[in-house]
Amino acid sequence: MAVTIKEIAERAGVSPSTVSRALAGNPRISAETRARIQRIIDELGYHPNMNARSLVVKSSGTIGVVLPRSGDSAFLNPFFPEVLRGITAALEEHGYALLLATGRDDAVKHEHVARMVQGKQVDGVILLESRADDHLIFYLREQRVPMVMIGRPLLEGIAYVDNDNVLAGKEATEYLLERGHRHIAFLGGSLAYAVTVDRRDGYMLAMDKAGIAPAMRTVLSTDFSEEDAYREVTDVLHRPDRPTAFVVADDLMALGVIGAVQSAGLTIPEDVSIVSFNNVLLSRLTNPPLTSVDIHILDLGRKAVEMLFALIEKSSSRVDHYTDTYIVHTQLIERGSVSLGPFASGNV
Amino acid sequence: MAVTIKEIAERAGVSPSTVSRALAGNPRISAETRARIQRIIDELGYHPNMNARSLVVKSSGTIGVVLPRSGDSAFLNPFFPEVLRGITAALEEHGYALLLATGRDDAVKHEHVARMVQGKQVDGVILLESRADDHLIFYLREQRVPMVMIGRPLLEGIAYVDNDNVLAGKEATEYLLERGHRHIAFLGGSLAYAVTVDRRDGYMLAMDKAGIAPAMRTVLSTDFSEEDAYREVTDVLHRPDRPTAFVVADDLMALGVIGAVQSAGLTIPEDVSIVSFNNVLLSRLTNPPLTSVDIHILDLGRKAVEMLFALIEKSSSRVDHYTDTYIVHTQLIERGSVSLGPFASGNV
DNA sequence: TTGAAAGCGTTACCAG
DNA sequence: CTGGTAACGCTTTCAA
């Protein structure tokens, strides 16, 4: 049996209530008893049973993070370790712990989340996925669990932190247009994700503005994986009118694009230019290094926990239905995957 | 207020005990009441309060994972997402959740771990770090918490899963020796880590066996980071008798080595060869791609949870002090960072 | 097959 | 400033 509050109360010759107060830093307690209690606590290395504590106060001191898909495939993309980095760093400052939720499929993940939410294991939740068809969001909203999403939700009334992905998509595309590319393709993940939709919309906006004919546009969408990107782009490259540049919504996918281009006997950036997104470590390692849009993943994570704590705060003072939004800025990092296109005017 | 067992008992016209039994799948209960109860549970979307449950049964259904250093810097190295990948996958199969422990310094991390262990939030712990001076291990052993380490502990009597790092270090070095290198340097992380020590020992063994004079050996040790590796190696490269090859204990460090070599105006593999460790994603992205020893990180993670569950099992049946060891094999993956050295015999 | 009651370790309210 | 008591939501004897 572990040492309990009762035991230390006995040794100190006081009641459990007093010990509890001492622990909580309650001021109405004599300095001497406080000291005596503290000494015994240190001596015995006492730590309160969090389950008992959480049972009575309504806080668990931990927040839940819901990974997309199964934890297995999620960690494949460097995006996730990076957000987690931001999240854990911020959580540390608040003395909060982090419970991870995964699940090989949506059903078991839902079960997992329900257990931690209704099981009162977490005070709030950060969602790392914004898919259109996600029941989880409805569920969490209905349960009135404080939550914030990383990435724009496809529903109203949910707090989130995100980049301005349509702006970022637009800028990435314009970057290519300014350098004389006209036939530019967009490659993104599934259109069920808001990120994909937004970046594509940005791409479309830029193409519209530049007056590029629909025939010169190509929108590809597939899984967020290197292999699928490879397959998809390989097809396109063998068309007679292949694009001279790609806007790719994810560095990992860009890896697939690089592979496809090189397998097709073409070279980057001479034959095809690429600008991608996320600017994770690997983008400076590829050959050539990728020009990529830095989305400040770390900040996404940090800000998400700040917002979550604000929500938890509010929800305990019953100011229901508080939602907020925070946009972290993006920045295109120039590297070596873009060259001048066939329509370059020479003055960029 | 969330829905409780009491409430569903009322609606079903039975006692809380009965509902509890139904939930637990207790066979001594009539099919009809069970069905009725189940219907109400589904209807109300009831989930038990895990804190209350954990308070009485002595299991929390979650295990703790202790990250090295602060979570912040840990996620910088691709090794950690990858173990986590293995761990979460295996945990999923057991229906267990995962609580992460970090801490910007050893003191707060210790506090964090103590809270989750003595606070009965976890049934066991996986340690992701094997440093010599780690008080945490003593603490956990004294608390008799089921635990397994990933990486060889520097103490006896602790269950762990690891690679045979001295063998792997030896093989990596021999690979270079066979290809005609004699002046081979070893670059590792801090010698407070067992990995570093073991791989270096393997290097020494190979050099001994090949009869290489101590003057031709160089052992470098620094932080597990790209920057430090860069700095350390830059020094060495400017010595008149620079090594023709490096055994580098980590892919991320190898990145720094590559940078240093190229900054010194030398080329890989012509001027200096590299074999590194871990074989994470980036090792095939560098230019040239890194010949690296695959340590099967995923298996390290999976196996660790298997062992942990075995331990938890044993500990509940009070067969104290059960320890075990599992070695996952390694495999050198040949890529483009090694060429023949000055003493190549031509017949490798 | 089911119910009543005790107990898990804390906190919080009410007295004193 | 401190103690007694109830309560948190669940499981588990012990009886029926």
UniProtKB/TrEMBL annotation, chains A, B:
Under Gene Ontology molecular function, one entry of this record is: transcription cis-regulatory region binding
User: Which Pfam families is this protein grouped with?
Assistant: LacI (PF00356), Peripla_BP_3 (PF13377)
Q: Which UniProt keywords apply?
A: DNA-binding, Transcription, Transcription regulation
Superkingdom: Bacteria
Question: HTH lacI-type domain: which residues?
Answer: 3-57
Q: Which CDD domains match?
A: HTH_LacI, PBP1_MalR-like
User: Which InterPro entries does the entry mention?
Assistant: HTH_LacI (IPR000843), LacI/GalR-like_sensor (IPR046335), Lambda_DNA-bd_dom_sf (IPR010982), Peripla_BP_I (IPR028082)
Name the PANTHER family for this protein.
HTH-TYPE TRANSCRIPTIONAL REGULATOR GALS, LACI-RELATED TRANSCRIPTIONAL REPRESSOR
Q: In its UniProt entry, what is this protein called?
A: Maltose operon transcriptional repressor MalR, LacI family
Could you tell me which species this protein originates from?
Candidatus Carbonibacillus altaicus
